Amino acid sequence: MQWVDFLANEAATHSLSPEQTAAFVKCLKTENSDKSQTEVATELKIGILAFKKRMTEVYDKFAQSYPQLATSKGRGKLEKLRACLTRKYNGGQDAISVNLRLKPICQR
Q: Model pTM greater than 0.70?
């Protein structure tokens, strides 16, 4: 499964609206990892406030699966979400938790 398809599946699993899904997928695409929120919002043809609102709603929905998102702020939330989803995509989340025997970064 390709990363973008995985993101679309995660969006559906977390009941994201079409607008939230567009912002989520665009923001987490590998080629957009270094872009600012303003650049991503511009590509989506929406204002920065609309983009931030959508991403806040995305973080709120994903916080049910990844509680550490609820305590993160700013760009840190995006990076934590990206890390959690990357681990899940690579199938290493459980292995990481078992091998480290530490509090996992991304809990499910």
A: yes
